[in-house]
Amino acid sequence: MLSEINLKAIPLGSFTHFPYQKREVKIAPGDTIMLMSDGFPELFDATGEIFDYVRVQATFAEVAAQSPPQIIEHFVRVGQAWAKGEPPHDDMTFVVMKVK
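The chain above was modelled as a monomer; its predicted structure follows.
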C-alpha cells in the first residue's frame, strides 16, 4: 500500500522558530520511506507540463521494493527522460530508507 504524506514548509533549518507540521506514522519492517523535495514533481517537460505527484506515486510504486540507491537512480532516469534535456527549475532532493 502506498501512502503519501504531503508536508508543505520552508527548508529545514531556514528559520529557528518556523511552525513545522508534525506527523506520527506507524512503520513496519519492510516499509520503504522516501522523502522528496518539490523539485521533482514540479519538473517541466519540453512543452511546459509538470511531472506532478500522481506520476511520482506511480513511479515510486514501480520500484518501492528495490534498494534505496536503485530507487533514487530510477527517479533520476525517469526525471531525465521526462525533461528531455530541459534544465530543472528547482533543486531535487531524495532520501530513501528501508525499515528493517
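The first helix runs from residue 52 to 63.
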